[in-house]
Amino acid sequence: SPERFEEARAQLEAMGGRILHLFMTMGPYDLVVVYETPDDAIAARWTLQVASRGNVRTLTMKAYPEAAYREIVGSLG
What's the pTM value of the predicted model, to 2 decimals? Predict the structure, then answer.
């Protein structure tokens, strides 16, 4: 619900993160949330908190910006 989403947003902001985008989607996933956090541990803590409230499943995918992508691929030799 929008109310639960706002609670989750407040939790994330209290941890130093922020939600960048929320998309309602069609297909296997109902929502996609794009967010940023100071580190991966905070991202893990937040998604575990959200999932622990029940009725929500999470799938986390770390995204790399273009500059990091180019650096990683460029280092392959």
Answer: 0.81
Alpha-carbon Rg for the chain in angstroms: 15
> How far apart (Å, rounded) are the C-alpha atoms in residues 74 and 77?
7
Which domain covers residue 68, as residue numbers?
A: 2-74
Q: What are 34's strand-pairing partners? A: 21
Rounded-to-integer distance, Cα 27 and Cα 18, Å:
25
The total number of structural domains in the chain stands at 1
List, for residues 29-70, the tens digit of each pLDDT value.
999 999 999 999 999 999 999 999 888 889 999 999 999 999
How far is the C-alpha of 52 from the C-alpha of 69, rounded, in Å? 33
